[in-house]
Design a protein that fits this description.
This protein is largely without helices or strands and about 200 residues long. It contains one helix and no strands.
């Protein structure tokens, strides 16, 4: 039989993390702030309520991982794969998800002001009621995103693909949507005061 995934609690050392196979690992509540998990395979891992503040997860595979209630302040997830990952209620102010793949991820209730999603893919992801003020997401693919009630005020969304997105009741006050694609998006009761829509496509 294959070995059971490890359970790492408390504040595991960097050497313990380096030596462990982390696919499916139980890291619930672990203190991993500032640790490096760059390029690691964390598919299906449980990171519920873990502290990943300023941790380096760049290029890591977190497909299907559960990061509910995680602390991700300033964390690096650049180029990481988070397909189908659960990020409900994460606290990710100033985190970097640049070039990451969050297709089908669940960010319901996430608080990620000033985070970077530049060039990221969030196709068919959920971000209901998420607080995403001031995020930078130029060139990102948010097609099919479900984000009713989300706060995207002052967000930098130049050239973003939001086609078919559900943005009812969302606030995008002062957001820069220059050249964005909003074809088929649901903007019912969305607030777009002072938003820039130069060259944006709003077909359908």
């Amino acid at each position: 039989m294959p070995p059971s995934p490890p359970t790492l609690s408390g504040r595991p050392s960097q050497s313990a993390l380096d030596a462990a196979a982390l696919e499916g690992a139980d890291l619930r509540g672990a203190s991993l702030a500032g640790r490096s998990l760059a390029g690691r395979d964390l598919r299906g891992a449980s990171l519920i309520d873990a502290d990943l503040g300023r941790a380096d997860l760049s290029g890591a595979n977190l497909d299907g991982a559960d990061l509910s209630d995680c602390e991700l302040h300033g964390a690096l997830l650049t180029g990481a794969s988070l397909k189908g990952a659960i990020l409900r209620r994460v606290r990710g102010a100033e985190a970097s998800f640049a070039q990451a793949d969050l297709s089908g991820a669940d960010l319901t209730g996430a608080t990620c002001p000033k985070a970077s999603f530049e060039g990221a893919t969030l196709r068919d992801a959920r971000a209901d009621e998420a607080l995403l003020q001031g995020i930078r997401a130029a060139g990102a693919c948010l097609a099919g995103l479900s984000a009713p009630g989300a706060a995207l005020d002052l967000a930098a969304l130049r050239g973003v693909d939001l086609s078919g997105a559900a943005l009812e009741r969302a606030t995008l006050e002062g957001a820069d949507l220059t050249g964005a694609r909003l074809d088929g998006a649901n903007l019912t009761r969305a607030r777009l005061d002072r938003a820039r829509l130069d060259g944006a496509s709003l077909k359908g």
